[in-house]
Amino acid sequence: MTAIVQNSIASQFLGRLWSAVLPIYRRPEEQQRVAQFVGAFDPVHLKRLPLPLIGERSEVQTVALVDDAEFHREVSDDAIEAAYQERRRTRVYEGMDARSDGWYSVTALQLARLARCRVACSMYESNSGDRNIGAHVDEWLGAIVQMRGAKSWTLWPSADSGPQQIITRPGDILVIPRDIMHEVTTPDYSVHLVFAFMTGHLIG
Question: Hey, what domains does the chain have and what are their CATH numbers?
Fold first, then answer.
C-alpha cells in the first residue's frame, strides 16, 4: 500500500475520531467522564482496513502476550503462536505508532500534532476465555476504536459509584480518562485499537 493511500486512510480515520472525542474533552471537567460513541465508523469500511495482525506484521512489530502483570514479548509469528497455545492470553501489538508504517501510525502522529502531546497506538487481539491484565487503571487518556468483533468493558468511574457496563462493537469509539479502573472480557473475538494520549487529557 502506497504512502498516498496510507495518508488518505489516516486522514479519513482521524477526522471521525477527532470530531467525536474533541467536543467532549475540550473542557477539563469533562475529561473525567467515560464516553461511548456508538457507530462512529462504518464497520464495513473498518473491516477493509489493513491491520498488522499475525502474518501481516513488520519484522520490528513486537507482540506482548498479557497475563495479569506479566508481559511476554515475542517477535516471530511461530514464537507468538507457540506462546499463545501454551497459555491463551490477549495479544498486544505494542508501539504501532513507532514500529509499523501503516495508516494507524500516521493517525497517531496526526493526533499528536492536534493534541500537542505524544500519542501512542497499540492493538489488542483476543479470543473468548483469553487471560488478560485484569482490573487496572492507565496513566493516559485512551481513545479506543473497536475494529473487529466485540469487547465487554466494566468500568468504575469513581470510588463511590457502582460499575458501569459497556459493550463495544465494530465502529464504536470508547474514551476512558486516565486513572479510571476498568476490566475487559471478550464474548467471542475482538480486535481494538487504543490511541493513548500520554498527558492524560486533550488540549482544545
Answer: 3-197 (2.60.120.650)
